Every structure is written in C-alpha cells, then in structure tokens.
C-alpha cells in the first residue's frame, strides 16, 4: 500500500525519443533546436520566439494559425535558406539562449519552498487555453487553466496538467449575412500540432483504458510541454476503439449528457491511470471545476483494491484533493440522473458491490436527486475555493446546506481570485517600454506593487504612442476580419472594400468580447438605440464599439444576441462604428484587450464568478467599465475605472434597467468627456487625465490580477498545506486516515447524546437592574454566561462549545462567535463552560450556544456537519 509514497519526480523518457522527433522534422543542423521550441508552448508567451517562426515564412505562419509545428513540417525550403542566413541564425541563437536561461534559472518555488522540491501537484481540467494553435478551450475557464500552467512553470511550481485532446476542438465561428452563427467543425491532424505522444519505458506509445458500460475504451496519451512543466491529454480516436468510442473526445462540450459523463469519466479516471503509467504520483490533485471530479473515484478504487476500509479510503483521497468551483450559474454544475450515473459507473460499482450506495452517495444532491459533479467534488476535497471574493461568498450561500447548522460565512469554501498570465497578455510593445523604465528584473516581480510605481517615470507621450500603435494594429486586424467575412458570404467587391474605412484611431474605442452566454448580456448597450446613436455620432467626440464572441451551439438565446449585434452593426447609422468580428479566439483576444480604450463588461450580478478579460485589458492600460461583479468588485477602487450598478437587486429586470441607465450616464458624463478633455490629442497634452487614469489603472491592478500572484496563493494556501496533511494521512500504513475515519464514525454514532443541559445568564435574573444603567455602561460592561453540556460517551475536548451573538454595526448585524472555556471537572458526563459577553445581550434570541465536533486532523473546523444548538431546542 505504498504507491503514494514513491518519489514523484517526473521521468524524462516519456516523450517521443529524440531520434524519432529529429526524423519527423528533418531540420538543418544549424537550427535543429527549432524543434524543441516548436514543441514547447514557451513560444506562445515569448514574442521573440513567435517572431522567429514568423520570420521563417510569415505567410505560412498566419495560414497555420500561428502553429510552429505545421510551419516547420511544411517549410523545407525556407528552413534550408534560414539555416545559412546570418541574420536568422543570430536571432535563433538569441531565442535559444533565452529559452535555455528560462529552463534553468532558479525559480520562486525553488527559493521559497526548497524543501518541497520532490513534490508534484496534478491539475485536472476539461479545457486548456494555451494558444490559438491548440483549440482545446471554449472560454475563460480554459484560458485560466492555460495561464495557471504557464505561471506554474515560470514560478517553478511542479505541476502536471491533465486534460482531453479534442479532435475537432471547440468550433470555428462564422457569421452569415443574417447574423446567424455557423459552428464549423474542423478535424485536426494531431501530427501537425505542438503535441507529442507520451511514451512508455519500452518505447511504445502510452495507452490507458477506462471501463465504460459498453466496454473498455483505449486512450492514447499525448504530452504538451508548457515551459518546465507538462500537460497530458487523452485521446480516444485510435483504431482499436469502436467508431462510437472514437468520437468520445471529438469535441469540447459537444453532444448530450451521455457524451458528457463519458468524457468526464475519461478525464478523471483515465487521467489518474495515465499519471500512474507515467510514474507520476501527485501529492495533491486539483480539480479545476467539477468536470474532473471522477478522478476521486479512480483513486478510491485503487485504495479499496488495496483493502483499505471505505471511509479510510475516502479520508485518504479527500486529504490530497482540492477543488475550485467556477460558476454561480446552476446550469454550469454538471448533474446526471441517478440512473444514468449508475449505468455509466456500472463497471466500477459491480467491482465494488459492497460500496455501491456509498459511492453513489458521494455525488448525490438530496434536493434534486441527481448525481451532481460539484457535490462529488465537495465531498471528496479538503480545501475548496471560488474564484473571486464575491464568488466565494456566493458559493458559500449556494452550498450552505452541505455543512449543517452554520452561517454562510462559516461555510468552508474560500476564495482565490483569478488572474491572467502577464507574458501572454501584455503587448510586447508595453514590455519593451516597461523594460526601459521599470526596475531590472521586473518581469519576475510583477506581483510586487512597488515595481509598478515606476510607471510614473514613463513620459505620457510614450504611453500614448504605444497605446495608439496597439489601437491601429487592432483596427487593421478588425478590418481584415470584416473584409474576409464579407467576401466569404459573397458580398460585392465594393462592399468588401468598404470596411477598409471602418473604425478610426481617433475615436474612443470600446471593446466587448467574451463567450455569449445570456447572463453576460452582450446587447445591453443596445437598449436605447437612439441614445446610443447620439453618443456615437458626435463629430467632435466620436465613439466606436467592437464586439466578438462565440455562443455555445446549443445556446439559442446566446446566438440571438449575436444576430442582434450583427443586425445593428449593419444599420446605416452604425456602419463602421459598431462591428461584430467573427471567430473570437485567443489571438483576437490579444488584439482587443491591447487595442481598445475601454473594456466593457456588463453581466448580471453576481453571475460572473470572476471574469478575466478585463484583467488582460487592465495591464495593457485599457480602462475597465464594468458591473461590480466578479473580480471587478474587489479590483475597482473608485479611481481606476468605472463601476456600473450599485444596487443589490435580485430582480433581473430592475437590474437591467439600472445598469442600462448607468452605462449611458457614465459614458456621457464621465468617460467621453474625460477622453476628449483637451482640445488637443492626448499625446500633445502633458499629464492628460486619460493617461493619468491609464497609469493608475495599471498600477492598482497589474500587481494583483495576474496568475503569478494567483498560483503563489494556490501553492501556499492550498497545495502545500494539503500536501503536508495528505502525507500524514498515508504514512505508517494509513494510520491517520483510519483513525480519522473511525473517529468520525464514532462521533456520528454517539452525537445524539450531546445536549445543552443548562444555560445560566446573570442578566436574565436581574434584568431590572441592568435596564437601569446607561447605554454607554451597558456596552462596556461584561457578564459571564455559563452552560452545562452533557456529552454522553464523547470526550469534551473533541468538541467546541461556542457562544454566538449578533452585534449591531450600521444597518447590519455581525455575527460574533466566542469560544467558551471549560470550567471545573467533568461530572456525570457533564461539563460546564463559561464566556464573557456584553452585558446588554439577553439570553434567548440575542445569543445562542452551539456545540460542534472538531479535530486537529480535520482540514477545516466544519468537516463533520453535526452540531447541537440552543436555537434548535
Ligand atoms: C480571456 C478570454 C476569455 C474570458 O473572458 P471573460 O471576460 O472572463 O469572459 C474568453 N475567451 C477568450 C478567447 C479569452 O482570451
């Protein structure tokens, strides 16, 4: 029973042997390490590396969708020329030495956590957004996962990703002349992508199997290198599978519930098997969203096979698992009819008939009777978090029912606010400017706010010059996108050429791009078209808006929004001022978040868990104009952008009205006047208020809303404490896991004995006297309350006795929890406790006493949802 204790260093011999790779690419000797660059996504966040590929053949680089492997495989002539071109060779050497320096430099993790160098963390996600050339993402969740892996590499955090390799990716979006979204499928040739098969020790390609009810499915394991780390992707499209099974990893978020549950089994169970076959034994498993939660069932099966009792096995896997939930939208939490879960988990359940109900119970949502992946994840993880402070709060409300009689505030779901990977999203033009003015080594210290103070040293004219350059690049990109679209749908040459005059670099430019989920309300700004028309048409102060985004193919209201935006963009009065670009992806996202002036985001509060595109915009000096939801609720400081909406209204219609009114009002009275606040263009105007705002926005947001800060937080608040605790659970033959399981069983069985036998409140005896003292005295005097608790067979130190009261604070009531101290001896299984509280509080509705089981071996103090409270009596 010791596989978890094996040293968990990643082995180097699990990718295609070097000789094979060499044979495949046939690169000239002088530039043969281009192969290494092409197969490491490091190129995707290093502009010099991308530029090197572009230099090889810029046409092919564009046509390949910035895919270096395809480029190398199809550019034999260009490679021969480059191999003897002194200019190319010089650039090549420079990039290679940069790459080598990156791969070998000492990192944050090595410095700060040197003792943990043997540890591995596994990160499971259904989607990863690394780069436009690897289309295995649909939106923010995937891009976050990609940025997480990139920062983990930068920081030296030993993290291995696990996901699925979708043969048809997500989909390519085309918009026809009616504004209809057409979702196009493209069958990718994996031999042309920056991925390689993982190999076993015997130089065979690695295949693992997952048992579905229709039989075992074979999965080929692929490896992507992401800087120092690797991500393994599973692929069912191999010959030994049935035609139906080969489709299982065809498409991200495609198909019905059967497809979804099969994919999630492949991800979770197949992913664990792949790690085992690779000899990787993670200390901690991070489930990025509930999609990955089946990984816990595979690990449970392993332990049950080893003979561990069920509850001890659950404690063991729980102690090594962390979970991030990503959405307050109920439909975003996968749930399957229980019969469906029974059918698909059939092969597992039939091997473990004794635990059938226990296993199904882990995913049971008692309210709906469904097997819910989020419930499974909550039951099998020891630390959990939402992705912004507000989302943490919303998640605590959502899952309060899980933890018995406790306040939302106490629900053990924390938050770690999302960020973005600076090197991926910050324009190279800004990096070059910052290199000149920010302290040396700033790129490795981006989470240090002091670094960003030096922004003050940058002349306004330089800031404006970079910003305008990026805006012009965006306008060029947008015109090309529109022209291509018009040509494709068969418009006249004249109509196609017309777009070349669309959009102006002198107009205040607003961007809106994201998945077109309905709660994001992409068309909100169209609620009053007349007013919008006036805004956009002021000849002195022109305004323009760019839209982009895909709607899920099954999301018809989302597609209706695209139709509406397209229709408005075609109206003569909005021609060239409102545009809808097609096929939003990471490439387009870079142009948009770097090139607009204002980034608009107006979701229904509080449905945006975090949002990250605004963070990308912020570091590029683009100003956020957003509903106070997700990350912006904590990022907005009153002085670094604009906030839409202030009320807490849960009535969607009321919220929509208020938000719409706010959008127009703020645009008219603040944004537009500020942008055009000088007769001259900002670059001729020293200390232009807009540039000032850009600086304040970067300074206040860039150091916080980046994934270096985020991954460091995951590492220190989640991964490392979990690894430490998990280690104690498995050492000495799972001794602690068994003890914790036994302890919980005992407490569950005996808890009914626990009673609060008596409460003694001195003020209850002398209320007349108390009411005669002044209000000030009342607040400052304390009284001692005592309680007698009957414990039966339970040992009192295994419990916490708390006195809870409410303190008025402004218009709110804050809950105060006081730990009561044991006094005297245990007599007749009864123990007395005391606490001092303000004397004006009366017994009864003003305070209550609560007894809960605790243990120093619990990950948090609400691990057993049991309590006894005076309020229940
Ligand atoms: C960053 C990004 C997202 C996420 O944007 P949100 O503002 O969080 O909705 C979605 N899609 C792409 C392509 C992105 O780059």
TrEMBL record:
Per its record, what are the GO molecular function terms? 1,4-alpha-oligoglucan phosphorylase activity
Q: Which residues form the signal peptide?
A: none
- Report the enzyme's class at the first EC level: transferase
Record-annotated DUF3417 domain positions: 27-134
What EC number(s) does this enzyme carry? 2.4.1.1
Which Pfam families does this UniProt record tie to the protein?
Answer: DUF3417, Phosphorylase
Q: Which UniProt keywords apply?
A: Allosteric enzyme, Glycosyltransferase, Transferase
Q: Which reaction does it catalyse?
A: [(1->4)-alpha-D-glucosyl](n) + phosphate = [(1->4)-alpha-D-glucosyl](n-1) + alpha-D-glucose 1-phosphate
Determine the domain of life of the protein's source: Bacteria
* Sequence similarity: Belongs to the glycogen phosphorylase family.
What is this protein's name? Answer: Starch phosphorylase
